[in-house]
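Researcher: Next sequence.
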Amino acid sequence: MKDFIKKNVRVIALLFIVILLSVVGVTLAINTSDTSNINLITKDIIPNIRYDKDTEGNDIRVLSSEGMMIPVTIDTSDINTVMNKKEVLKLKFWVSGNADNPEESIYDIALHNVDIDCELKDESVKWLLYKNNNLLYNGNLSPRYDTMPNNRLLLTDTQQDLTLNEDEYLVAIYIEESCHGNISECKDKNDQSNLLGKKIKAEISIETSTKSKVIHKRETSEKINCMEDNTIVNRPVCNPNLIYDGSNLTLTTISNGIIVNQRSAIDAGKYNVIAKLEKSYKWDDNTNSDYILTCTVKKRSITISTLDQDDSSFASNPEYISTINLVEGHKVNSIKLERIKTDTKDIISPSRAIIYDQNGNDVTSNYSINYQSVGRVK
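Model: Next structure:
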């Protein structure tokens, strides 16, 4: 055995060094800095992260759409255009290293704890990563978020150098319009209504490491079905024969799983009711896009007839008329009564009636008035 060791001492020493370096390499393995608190697996690599501030001076660390994104066409080569588009979800931050960090420290940028509505996992939902005002990488929220293990979206194709110099980053997410220009002339546009009102929320994360850089492989998969295992509901319909009566009238009756922008109305007119589905529901044709129906409250038909008046005291006064079908509590506040000459007694013709409700509000537009010239001048 001693002879064997003497003859192979150099090989054994080399193996010892390789094992030692492997242990060091593991110690400097990938660490993650999340946006709520920079907690590193080790303290060997410490990035500095600085964020934009809100109006109250707090760090903006989370991307949150609040369901406000709508399709838009932008020039992604111009960061100023991206910054000025209110339809684009964006977050700015700055990254630098420390003098105590190991040499050749590198890092990836990722979105962690991604909470996203299923419909936004679509190739038309784009993400952009700018570094020092230049577009660095971009991709889409395809069904697999390009590559997204552990609810994580990796934004860098390869690692960036972590140096003492501070680098500025901008992450932007937007819905790319399926049709550019005049949408009325677009023949091949896709219906993107299913993307409206959807939410996405994610946290910026810096993932540090050392040693050699690698190129990340991005993959996509077939479009997923967001409607799988959802409860079927029928589209709502307008309640028929709604006629103004001064009360709140129910425009449409809805079932569980449906939310509408307006359930009832008082005044006569046409109302666009937008029906949205809650999660885990779909229409009976397996779609889930918003449904718009136009419901009508008809004007109330009334008849106003004139009464006889004395010639000496003739006046345009509501006390000289009778009404049929007026809502209880409503009254004719003013009216024009006109004498029309005939061969016998003059006819009294009514027009321009103004009707008030019990609270003194003008509700004339809610009535369809049939004027009858019945009264005579005595």
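Model: The first strand starts at residue 31 and ends at 33. Residues 27-209 form one domain.
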